[in-house]
Design a protein that fits this description.
Blueprint (H helix, E strand, L loop, with lengths): L7 E2 L48 E9 L4 E8 L10 E5 L8 H8 L3 E3 L6 E3 L9 E6 L8 E2 L10 H18 L8 E6 L2 H15 L9 E7 L5 H14 L5 H10 L11 H14 L15 H9 L4 E2 L15 H10 L2 H6 L16 H5 L9 H9 L3 E7 L7 H9 L5 E10 L2 E9 L2 E6 L6 H4 L1 H13 L8
Helix pairs in contact: 1-8, 2-3, 3-11, 4-12, 5-6
């Protein structure tokens, strides 16, 4: 989940597109786990404030990705709650670009701890994905969350390629800290703008795997409400807004008649620009990431919503960002928690005296993003050809990267259908619908917004379990 002030992009794609307790308050290891306690020992999290008791280890800290420039990426790693040595390793990335995987994925969505409403304590997440896998959350690129560079010029180079290269370097250096995980099955997952990060990193890994000394056992990728192809994403955004009664027939008709989202000069058409501006103006009244839920009632959020203006950026390819999410107040809780001196000390970020200013999203990174792929569909084709497992899912009440955007993008691949459209079930209820293609599975989550696990935690864990096992989503009650 990402949030940013509202921005209309001017340049659009030219292409179509539990056991003895360990953790926050306990410093002794159970005897049966002492052998594995040596790896990553310096990053072991021992006294995390407000943490509930758990029976697994977790680690946090830095991995240097460029010694010359002093670039270091911050990570938080949770061992699987049972049998970590037998379960796969999953890297999770949030998008933005500029948003924190710690603030969103780890402590709002799929990690074992969720920041409580007081900003001081953590609640245990019964549906944490570390029940099925070892979960590694990365704040990427530098400038996101606690990640940093000692070379200021690095912040002027940020883009998709830069991010993929540093993430790849991170993995290999992280394996030096945790050597027992180097040969375990590996997956990459993420949501939103990570719809570009994840395929790009996967593509880089496959290219580098030709060198046996660099081999990473990547088996597949999992993407939620992902940005995929700029032209199809835009088309899906406006069609979804109309089909869900956010805008009028007249506005939608104007867009259909005047906007060519495959063109390099889409916004030179004034009728198109004004009609799309109207779509985004209406979305300011609600939460674009979750059409049917309330926005946060805090004064700061309401003021931000009221003051947002439509801005045209002629030098940007980025899609619009609007403040939002299932509970936008979650961002405030996380910001309060991660700027506490004792929290930063426990996570090995600072000494508790010289604090780092943590923000859940870095707007400067978003504004200055240099390199955004117009479409990652060509990468999909390469990954499919390499036999990767590719699952895409969409919360169907998200207006930001709506289900229509993803369907339009996937349809353009022209993949043969191997299992036709049908419901999938969780606890005998329809969780959503899915269709299997040759090389790819697409599924929806019924009644979920942009960050699906926040809305449907039980369903998302069950879905993730099917992905890890290589099984179809359950399609019988």
């Amino acid at each position: 989940m990402d949030w940013f002030p509202l921005i209309i992009v001017i340049l659009i794609s030219s292409s179509a597109c539990v056991v003895p307790v360990i953790g926050g308050r306990h410093g002794r290891f159970p005897k049966e786990k002492q052998v594995s306690s040596l790896q990553g020992v310096g990053d072991l999290v021992m006294n995390l404030p407000g943490q509930p008791e758990v029976g697994f280890r977790h680690y946090a800290g830095y991995v240097n990705v460029n010694a010359e420039n002093g670039r270091s990426l911050f990570y938080w790693f949770y061992e699987a709650s049972t049998l970590p040595e037998e379960r796969p390793l999953v890297l999770w990335l949030n998008g933005g670009p500029g948003c924190s995987s710690v603030g969103y994925g780890a402590t709002q969505e799929i990690g074992p701890f969720v920041v409580d409403t007081d900003g001081h304590t953590l609640k245990f997440n019964t549906y944490s994905w570390n029940r099925e896998a070892n979960m590694l959350f990365l704040e990427s690129p530098v400038g996101v969350g606690f990640s940093y560079s000692n070379t200021t010029a690095d912040y002027d180079k940020l883009g998709d390629d830069f991010t993929a290269i540093d993430a790849y370097a991170f993995l290999h250096n992280w394996f030096l800290k945790f050597p027992s995980y180097r040969n375990q099955i590996f997956y990459i997952a993420g949501e939103s703008y990570a719809g570009k990060y994840v395929p790009e990193l996967a593509d880089l890994i496959l290219n580098k795997n030709t060198d046996s000394s660099l081999f990473i056992d990547l088996r597949g990728i999992l993407l939620g409400n992902p940005e995929t192809c700029d032209a199809e994403d835009w088309k899906g955004l406006v069609d979804y807004a109309w089909s869900h009664a956010v805008v009028s027939d007249e506005t939608h008709k104007t867009i259909r008649e005047s906007c060519d989202f495959n063109s390099n000069n889409t916004w030179s058409n004034e009728d198109c620009s004004q009609a799309v501006e109207e779509v985004l103006r209406q979305y300011k009244e609600i939460d674009i990431y979750s059409l049917y839920t309330s926005v946060c009632g805090s004064a700061s959020i309401e003021q931000s919503l009221q003051s947002m203006q439509v801005v045209f950026k002629t030098n940007s390819k980025m899609m619009p960002r609007i403040l939002g999410g299932y509970d936008p107040c979650l961002d405030e809780y996380a910001t309060k928690y991660y700027n506490r001196p004792d929290v930063q000390r426990a996570l090995h970020v600072s000494n508790g005296i010289h604090l780092k200013n943590w923000t859940i999203c870095n707007m400067k990174i978003f504004n200055n993003w240099l390199d955004s792929k117009e479409s990652v569909l060509p990468i999909y084709n390469r990954l499919i050809g390499a036999g990767m497992r590719i699952w895409i899912y969409s919360g169907d009440t998200d207006g930001r990267v709506p289900v229509l955007s993803t369907r339009y993008s996937l349809n353009s691949l022209g993949l043969p259908i191997t299992r036709s459209w049908r419901p999938w079930y969780h606890q005998k209820q329809v969780g959503g619908w899915f269709q299997e293609y040759k090389g790819l599975t697409f599924a929806t989550f019924r009644g979920a917004g942009h960050a699906v696990p926040i809305f449907k935690p039980g369903e998302s864990l069950a879905f993730f379990s099917s992905f890890i096992r290589g099984e179809s989503p359950p399609f019988e009650r």
